[in-house]
């Protein structure tokens, strides 16, 4: 479990043991629409998310990244397959039970932020704590707000914030309860490079020093290079996997996936 005090950074490289899985998706299928308009957004995805790691999910637009994040976080039901979070099988739960599980165990950063318009930035950030009836960890809250550069924006409402500021509020809100897993759909998509790098360094540190499990969708090879691992989706399936990614290895893998020859059954 995570503690409320922040341990000192581990010295030297991390041990090369395989961490325990925080989430496992097996054979997950999700379709939208019916008949001729049917879209198979997820076509049998298998994905294991290791605990305490920052995992990046990449892939072309429409490859199923957001659909997979929503499914793994219990936001949407799936048509087939299994999704386990820790010891819980998500597909066995009712919608109401999934809502409770999300509130108690998960954090989510939506591609479109989804902040509550009538609440200030500070109230939006604290909302998951309020819903869960928990008191804020002052030090953690302060670290989130400072790292994300939101100190002088806390009394503003979302309509008074820029897109990048709203995105940073959404990230703080997802992390405020120190959830078992944070799913973040393009958390740096609206940030300039300075704020983007600060956020990525923070997510990397949260994983390495605090054991926070983070799954982050990104289109940006530089953002992906902050991760411990990159999973590539193509056509609703996991198509490739890179450990300890660098910008050149991410670019090379992306280029490989774009070659028609690599499309197995096209
Ligand atoms: N609510 C929906 N109704 C119908 N089709 C949908 C819906 N949501 C997603 N899709 C389709 O499912 C496929 C996967 O979409 P998804 O949003 O998961 O892609 P993505 O990889 O996140 O793309 P992007 O990088 O553009 O965000 C796409 O073909 C998309 O059009
Ligand atoms: Mg998406």
Terminal Cα span: 45 Å
Q: With helices defined by DSSP (H or I, 4 residues minimum), what is the helix count?
A: 8
- The global form is globular
Determine the fraction of residues in helical runs and give it as a percent range: 25-40%
The number of strands is 10
Average residue pLDDT: 90
Overall SS class: alpha/beta
DSSP strand content = 15-25%
Oligomer classification:
single chain
Order of helices and strands: EEEHEEHEHHHEHEHEEH
Strand order of the largest sheet: 6-7-8-3-9-10
Ligand set: adenosine-5'-triphosphate, magnesium ion
Uncertain spans: 1-12, 262-266
Radius of gyration using CA atoms only: 18 Å
Largest sheet: 6 strands, mixed
